Amino acid sequence: MIKGSIVAVVTPMYPDGGVDFDSLAALVDWHIAEGTDAIVAVGTTGESATLDTDEHIEVVRRVVKHAKGRIPIIAGTGANSTTEALELTRLAKEVGADAALMVTPYYNKPPQEGLYRHFKAVAEAVDLPIILYNVPGRTGVDMLPATVKRLSEIRNIIGIKEAKGELSRIQELLDLGLPRDFALYTGDDATARESMLMGFHGDISVTANVAPRIMHEMCVAALKGDKALAEKLDARVAELHSVLFLEPNPIPVKWALNQMGRLPAGIRLPLVPMSAQPQDQVRNALRVAGALS
């Protein structure tokens, strides 16, 4: 089981929207050096919704190739079409991803039975470990704990990223009696520390894009049950957890990484570069975290 700080890495782009593979490779090296425990390539933070299939899989392939087994690579393969999700998962396996992260289908709002059958179909068709991803604030559908319980009985569905952002949901999942090897990850940085102190195994993080060392160390402390140290470390990045969502993700985090000199100022429509109003807040939070001088 992968534990700790798992970065939902951005996809670097040039101002014209083309993928910057050199910056992507540099990000992989930086995360490994800073202690990040695993990388999600082309998750939703990686702008999966605006990359075509060839670009999507090429990014995953490049990340896997450059990592050279130094760190687990999880491919984002979610889609609101089961056929598309299945194909992305199959291709991710072909290029060597260690696992797939599959967001719940967005916009079409399937019922719980539809969610169950969607993930079941992909898991049975592709022999790759699959991590479920629930983020109702972005998809418009909430995968309920009872459905997670059903899906946990499928051999290669190995975990869930729960990003509802409510500690009550964290406790519901902990109380389900899931298999001991079923991984529980939070996808909400603001409640990540508490989630891991309660019993979750890690954080699939946006904040780790800009503060990977602190996020790794905070996760280590929380997983050990060292509440005081986890709180101390989390305090350094607590403002980042908030300001990186002042505009829709990944607008602020890509702006922050550009300010840090780690990638060009590229993002794809319908997303646009961050507006001027929140820039000082993001810059100040980066300085508090030691990510910007």
TrEMBL record:
It is an enzyme of class 4 (lyase). The record marks 44, 107 as: Part of a proton relay during catalysis. It comes from the Bacteria. Its EC number is 4.3.3.7. Pfam families: DHDPS (PF00701). It is found in: Cytoplasm. Keywords: Amino-acid biosynthesis, Cytoplasm, Diaminopimelate biosynthesis, Lyase, Lysine biosynthesis, Schiff base. The record marks 49, 80, 84, 106 as: L-lysine inhibitor binding. It catalyses: L-aspartate 4-semialdehyde + pyruvate = (2S,4S)-4-hydroxy-2,3,4,5-tetrahydrodipicolinate + H2O + H(+). GO terms for molecular function: 4-hydroxy-tetrahydrodipicolinate synthase activity. Pathway: Amino-acid biosynthesis; L-lysine biosynthesis via DAP pathway; (S)-tetrahydrodipicolinate from L-aspartate: step 3/4. CDD domains: DHDPS. GO terms for biological process: diaminopimelate biosynthetic process; lysine biosynthetic process via diaminopimelate. Transmembrane segments: none annotated. The active site is at residues 133, 161. GO terms for cellular component: cytosol. Pyruvate binds at residues 45, 204. Homotetramer; dimer of dimers. Belongs to the DapA family. Catalyzes the condensation of (S)-aspartate-beta-semialdehyde [(S)-ASA] and pyruvate to 4-hydroxy-tetrahydrodipicolinate (HTPA). This is 4-hydroxy-tetrahydrodipicolinate synthase. It comes from Stenotrophobium rhamnosiphilum. The lineage of its organism: Bacteria, Pseudomonadati, Pseudomonadota, Gammaproteobacteria, Nevskiales. The gene is dapA.
